[in-house]
Amino acid sequence: MSLLRAAAGQAGCEAVLTLADVRTTHSAFAADEGYGYQDWYDEYDESDDEYTGGEGEYDIQELIDSEVTLTHWTGPEGTRLEQTSLHVDSKEVCAATPTGDLAPYSSEYEGYMGNWGNTLDRWYHRAAVTVWPREQAFANRAEASPAWALEEISAMASAGDVPGARAAAVTLAPFWNTALGGQTPQDRGRTWELFGQALRAADAVADARTAAMLLRPFRVEDLDHESVDPFGIIAGRYGQPWTAELLRTWFGGDRPAWTYGGPERPRWVADRLADLCARLRARGAAGTVTAQRLVDLAWEWLAKDIDTGLASSSPSRRDEKLADLGRPLASLLTAAAVIGSIQLAAGGCACELCRTLRTFLDDTSRRTLEWPLAKERRRHVHARIDAAELPVTHVTRRQGRPYTLVLNKTEALFAGEQLARKRDEADLEWLVANGAGRS
Fold first, then answer.
1. 393/385 Cα distance (integer angstroms)
2. Which residue of 153, 155, 370, 372 pairs with 201 in a disulfide if CB–CB is 3.0 to 4.6 A?
3. Whole-number Cα distances in Å, 291 to 99, 222, 229, 244, 367
């Protein structure tokens, strides 16, 4: 094996020991059955459905199908065995000894069943040497073990090789969505573990585009109290446009509805949203803006479900649907009260200027913002403040180029926040008293 590794290295490849499971399917006939079916209906017996006799009791014909699956391989340093599950195309397999010359560890015969049958399946355990180009080694291992890949990216960055970690992560892009997508509720424990690893890797690569690729396959339901702080750090690192786009993807984006539907979304909103928003708000202005984005997207989702319930022609179904949305709605109102942010004008402008304005409004430590802006950009901010009737003065200091727009929060802003909080708390008490809080 050492000589083979050396030869593979000279060819720019990596060689690893692997264990494989091989399954072959041949057409076959029981020895006393011959090649005809004229007597099948007369002689058929239910006990003949499966054949478990010896190898010499049937005639094996042509190969119908062959399947090779790698089940284990050695790690990069060749000292530990790692579990994997990777199908290998028959065109990529070369065997010095044909599989058929070996003894199978299991076999199963299916008699003639009209439209199928007269087949013999056999299973083999085989050892193999797997060789691949060195530049594909990381991606090949990652596709079989995403958890290993994420930990390796973080380890490379921690060791000081951030460019290497980033380059390794980029090789995952062609298959990453497929490798992590399609998780079922039964997979949630594994997915939450992967999510934590992905957050660490996304932070480690120090590149917004690569980080988004690593995190895109997940869903907003993966965000919990353990991951919200690491996510808040990443949101601060990569900025609000990046965070807003990622959150929209996690909420569904352009994905088919079945990929994020089901009971998990209402439970997540009902049980986690308010707490997550409180934790994000505690991180400062950037965290508060992220929490506001969560609330906005949760409301978009909830509003659609409310509309669906109201459109039901069955009164009982309509009442049941709306009652089920009571707890998520109560949690959403609580989250809105927790972050206590001032909304911009109806319809909401999502431009960069309005995001900056919202950040300023949500930052309780800042009373004044001096903002150098060109004329048309100042005009847009003036219009948004006036349209939303925000308690903020806005004057232009005509010195230098561009002129500086000076914003000052008035006392009415803070009084309005207190009033809005009291109103939200009263609304929440009403919902709970009228049954919205019951599951």
1. 9
2. 153
3. 59, 15, 12, 10, 21
**Closest-CA residue to 107 (of 185, 26, 175, 5):** 26
In 3-state terms the chain splits into helix, strand, coil percentages (rounded to 5) of 55, 20, 30
pLDDT single digits (tens) 261-294: 567 899 999 999 999 999 998 888 888 889 989 9
pLDDT digits (tens, 9 = 90+) for 169-220: 999 999 998 887 655 545 555 677 899 999 999 999 999 999 999 999 999 9
Token look-up 């006392």 returns: 411
Contact between 197 and 150 (Cβ < 8 Å) = yes
pLDDT digits (tens, 9 = 90+) for 143-154: 878 888 999 999
Residue spans of beta strands (DSSP E) within 250-349: none
Residue 53 clears pLDDT 70, i.e. is over it: no
User: Could you give the angle at the alpha carbon of 256 between the alpha carbons of 175 and 249, nearest 5°?
Assistant: 65
Give the tokens for residue 289: 């803006």
Confidence of residue 46 (pLDDT cuts 50, 70, 90): very low
Give me the numbers of helices (H) and strands (E) for the chain, helices first please.
Answer: 17, 9
Q: What are the CA-CA distances from residue 406 to residues 372, 403, 429 (Å)?
A: 9, 10, 40
In this structure, what token pair is assigned to residue 230? Answer: 């690491």
Residues 252, 119: Cα–Cα separation, whole Å: 45
pTM (2 d.p.)? 0.62
Query: What is the C-alpha separation between 277 and 292, in angstroms, rounded?
Result: 8
315-324 vs 326-339: helix axis angle to the nearest 10? 40
337's tokens: 């009260």
Strands (E), 31-118: 50-51, 58-74, 81-88, 106-110
Strand partners, 59: 29
- How far apart CA 218 and CA 69 sit, in angstroms, is 27
Using alpha carbons only, what angle is made at residue 95 by residues 89 and 101, rounded to the nearest 5 degrees?
A: 115
